[in-house]
Design brief:
The complex is a heterodimer of chains A (287) and B (313).
Chain A lengths: L1 H7 L4 H8 L1 H23 L31 H36 L1 H16 L2 H12 L3 H28 L2 H8 L4 H37 L11 H8 L8 H28 L8
Helix pairs in contact in A: 2-3, 3-4, 3-11, 4-5, 4-7, 4-9, 4-11, 5-7, 6-7, 7-9, 9-10, 9-11, 10-11
Chain B lengths: L1 H10 L1 H16 L5 H6 L5 H11 L5 H13 L13 H7 L1 H28 L4 H15 L2 H15 L15 H35 L2 H8 L4 H38 L5 H11 L2 H29 L6
The chains are: A mainly alpha (287), B mainly alpha (313).
Chain lengths: 287, 313
């Protein structure tokens, strides 16, 4: 599978990629812009996101304050740019954390039969709890902080990854070349490294983009309902939460972080769809 | 059929047990002393100790789990730390708005998604397909509260057609009930429609490639009849499955939408409980939502037989 997947990648560089899978370029570009904003935040804004300027309270967007002012007069543009840091940290953190944990659980399940029964029942149980509520419960245990938000959302994402990895392992174990390797006495870790992990790479990459997108949305929801990023750090979710009460007179406080959030998640989803089209041509629309 | 239903219900016991263990452990691990919280600020150390013993909080984990699960099975979810009222009572009071919102948005989602997915698959690659799939990607990406605020800005603030927020029970008249419900239900419905539309399209694409579809067209049946009676019915199992899965999405959506629109339902109860660190309420709500999710997916499983008689339970 990994061999065919590489072959399916268009040869001939960016132009070919653009012609065949524009979603990848557009999505990566949108995500890249958000990553740039997160890293370059101090150079992109002139006002500190925490500076309170009372005359700027609920100020409409204008030449001086591009996205206007918030409830207590902080610069919404500055807060929105800095908010990218939280969302992207959560996106990357959960994608890496959820996939690592899910990979371990999935491999254990796929290879060790007696563990499989137990782990899969636990995964069923975890999946039955709506992920947002599971995250809320975990955060209410540990207290709201960026690290705890990442851990909580990662745990909620583990079952899906574990199931995916397990199904890849189970189908691989039936493959003649894997059976041959086992018969030839290849050490288990070598089989894992050479045959199993490369085959989980493509599906996990695609799954990773969807986990990223859903983690960014979940963080925003958690911050919005007051269980996520503490108010001292600007995040798109808590900027929107603060603007909620004055929405009808100052809609810009909700609008701009909302757009930034949708833009980033859309980029990641387009990237994921593009990658899926490359690796899994079954779903490409017939033309 | 009854035997099948009973057997399936029994099969949900392991999952529900694990959910119960997870939910109980969360409360067990909660920092802080529930006895001290319940006793109030004026309580002496002896008072707290007496309360702890009388509540059985000094017992080991397994004993406490046993007591708790016995209570749960008898409909006792504990007492709210904040309002000192039974959690079950709080939940029952908040059920109506949440059920109304959930059913209305599910209905809207299906009414949008299924026709859209069918047409997109039928005219695959065409303009409707492209628009439908762009809509689906957008639906995955725009958070429900952003869409809610856009709809409020348009229909409530600008056009002043609908109320900005609030909820009116159906007993106070259907028209005010519907007026208040329509915006939250539409926001949540649109977001959920994205996933369902996408699966509908993918499944329909596979089915439309089958020989019997070409045969049905060749013998002169109308496009509509072929799409609905032959194709959609055979695509129904994955579609119904994804509707069941989307129910989880719907639950997290309910929590958010009720906050945006100030609807006094279970979602609002959850958010208030989080802000007040009212752990028994958080625990009870999670348990109720999870049980509902399991039951919905059980119903989905049982419905397979209706669409495909080959699936025997």
């Amino acid at each position: 599978m990994s061999v065919t997947a590489t072959a399916a990648l268009p040869a001939g560089g960016l132009t070919r990629l653009w012609q065949r899978h524009p979603n990848i370029i557009i999505g990566a570009g949108m995500l890249g812009l958000a990553v740039f904003a997160a890293f370059a935040a101090p150079w992109l804004v002139s006002v500190d996101p925490q500076t309170i300027a009372p005359f700027n309270r609920l100020e409409a967007p204008g030449a001086e304050f591009w996205f206007g002012g918030d409830l207590i007069g902080r610069d919404v543009y500055s807060r929105t740019v800095y908010g990218a840091r939280v969302s992207l940290a959560v996106g990357f953190g959960v994608a890496i954390g959820g996939i690592s944990l899910g990979l371990i659980v999935g491999l254990l399940s796929g290879f060790v039969r007696w563990v499989d029964q137990i782990l899969m029942r636990v995964m069923d149980g975890l999946m039955a709890i709506p992920s947002i509520l599971l995250a809320v419960a975990l955060i209410s245990l540990t207290g709201a902080s960026l690290k705890n938000v990442i851990i909580a959302i990662s745990i909620a994402e583990v079952p899906r990854v574990a199931r995916l990895v397990r199904s890849v392992v189970l189908s691989l174990k039936e493959q003649p070349y894997v059976e041959a390797a086992v018969t030839a006495g290849t050490p288990f870790l070598l089989i894992l490294w050479r045959h199993v992990l490369p085959n989980t790479l493509a599906p996990l990459l695609i799954q990773g983009t969807y986990i990223f997108a859903s983690a960014v949305l979940t963080e925003a929801i958690l911050s919005f309902i007051g269980a996520g990023t503490p108010p001292s750090t600007p995040s798109w979710g808590n900027i929107i939460a603060e603007g909620r009460t004055v929405f009808s007179i100052a809609p810009h406080i909700v609008l701009f972080p909302g757009l930034a959030l949708s833009f980033t998640v859309l980029g990641v989803n387009l990237l994921g769809d593009g990658l899926r089209d490359v690796f899994d041509p079954r779903y490409v629309s017939r033309k | 059929m009854l035997a099948v239903v009973i057997r399936r219900l029994l099969a949900t016991i392991p999952v529900m047990t694990i959910v119960a263990v997870i939910v109980f452990s969360l409360l067990y691990l909660t920092p802080g002393d529930p006895a001290a919280v319940l006793a109030g600020e004026q309580a002496t150390a002896e008072d707290i100790e007496r309360l702890r013993v009388s509540l059985g909080l000094d017992q080991p984990y397994l004993v406490r789990f046993g007591q708790w699960i016995t209570g749960v099975l008898h409909g006792d979810l504990g007492t709210s730390i904040f309002s000192r009222r039974p959690v079950m009572e709080l939940i029952v009071q908040r059920l109506e708005p949440t059920i109304a919102l959930t059913l209305a948005s599910l209905l809207i989602a299906v009414l949008i998604a299924v026709p859209l997915g069918v047409i997109a698959a039928w005219r695959s690659g065409g303009i409707v397909d492209r628009m439908a799939m762009s809509f689906a990607v957008l639906g995955f990406s725009v958070p429900v509260f952003v869409l809610s605020y856009l709809l409020i800005a348009l229909f409530s603030v600008k056009l002043q057609l609908l109320p900005v927020q609030g909820y009116v029970p159906i007993a106070y008249g259907f028209v005010p009930f519907a007026q208040h419900l329509i915006l939250p239900a539409v926001s949540l419905g649109i977001i959920n429609a994205a996933l369902i539309a996408r699966i509908t399209r993918t499944t329909m694409l596979e089915v439309l490639n089958q020989d019997y579809i070409r045969a049905a067209r060749a013998k002169g049946l109308s496009v509509r009849r072929v799409l609905v009676r032959h194709a959609l019915k055979n695509a129904a199992v994955p579609i119904v499955t994804v509707i069941g899965i989307s129910f989880a999405l719907l639950i997290s959506g309910v929590v958010v939408t009720e906050t945006v629109f100030n609807i006094p339902g279970l979602g609002r109860l959850t958010v208030d409980a989080i802000l007040r660190r009212d752990y028994p309420v958080i625990q009870g709500v999670i348990l109720v939502f999870s049980a509902t999710y399991v039951v919905v997916n059980l119903l989905v499983d049982l419905s397979y037989g209706l669409f495909d008689p080959r699936i025997k339970h």
